[in-house]
Input
Amino acid sequence: MYTYESSRSLFERALHSIPGGVNSPVRAFKSVGGTPVFFEKAKGAYLYDVAGQRYIDYIASWGPMILGHGYEPVTRAIQQQVEKATSFGAPTEIEVEMAELIKSMVPNVDLIRMVNSGTEACMSALRVARGYTGRNKFIKFEGCYHGHADPFLVKAGSGVATFNIQTVPGITAGAANDTLTCAYNDLAAVEKLVAGHKGEIAAIIVEPVAGNMGCILPEPGFLEGLRRICDEEQMLLIFDEVMNGFRLALGGAQERLGIDADLVTYGKVIGAGMPVGAFGGKRHIMEVVAPLGGVYQAGTLSGNPVAMTAGLTLLKALKEKPELLTELDEKTLYLKDGLDAVLKAWGQPYVINHLGSMISIHFSAQPVVNFAAAAAADNARFNRLFHALLKRGIYLPPSAFESWFLNNALTKEDLDQTIQAVKESLEEL
Ligand code: HOZ
Output
């Protein structure tokens, strides 16, 4: 029997000194209700809370724990690096190795700059696109989340959607006015926006496989259409691969879906879960970045040696054994088939969206192809499923507007246990 007393008292304590008791809103469980679980350690596919209770993990720190938590080579590499130095604010060989490794895995990245988070990566990529094109406006899709920099907090998914925040206080109208939005998968709406703003749009930014309104897949032709429109209008196509990168394929969504973006952004995955991000792309575009060009971007912790060492070790492991990603995809397919079987037997409307090792369930009778469809689903039912699974030791993202992420430490027994727990939980909904 799972108990949450220890987490509850920590949460109450946290409320006195941290806004809402958490350092990132979705963690507060406001969407699903109840008390957030406070964790103490993680190993392989499991999380352990402060009361020592074990959970099978389906968030993988929102993506980066591709090979599971506490992956030994990464832990060892971090320990060795910490002995040498934790920060220089000056160049290191590890950063060069990291840049070379990413270039070898993502062919259209000629130059890449390390930053500290996915937010920084996306905000910097947009600045580059604006600096390169001399235009201010850009297009993003409703429900896509590109971090919390001002221009992106317009119809953003993830926490903003979870809490139904329509207008974000603190974002100036000036910042928001340059953000043009339309529905994900709606190419005709993109064409219309572009026609109405000829010569004003610097870029289109997109999560190629969206993970911040649940997992939502691009329909055939959508990303190809964005590529074509960007070419026709001299706009840049930015792929936000914070969730997709090195997970959907070594070369990320670009490789898996066969689309060539102009700029690409990464997040914590290139730090194996440590605080890192990066933006990169074609040479002629990235050459605008300071000190080569005038688009300024900087940071003492950028390319931090501990984070770089961790990421380098994970990415090298994936490059040396690409079959690890295949295994992970097979496990996800096994889970998907199992969930499909129990949901079908249950008999109520549902949708499972899935690609590679990203997956989500929506209680909807309609296909879930954009934010409006995800929001129209019976998300109260998702919230009940979340809690029914939590008490059975399964940790899903605490919001229907987030993708689940599998890790390769999951065993067949873990997946079977999860499928069985979903079967039992559905009977309670
Ligand atoms: N909304 C974030 C993922 N899409 C959650 C970040 C966090 O709480 O760590």
User: Anything to note?
Assistant: The mean pLDDT is 96. The first helix runs from residue 5 to 15. The pocket of (4S)-4,5-diaminopentanoic acid is lined by residues 24, 26-27, 62, 145, 158-159, 212, 402 (CB under 6 Å). The domain at 5-70+322-428 is CATH 3.90.1150.10 (Aspartate Aminotransferase, domain 1).
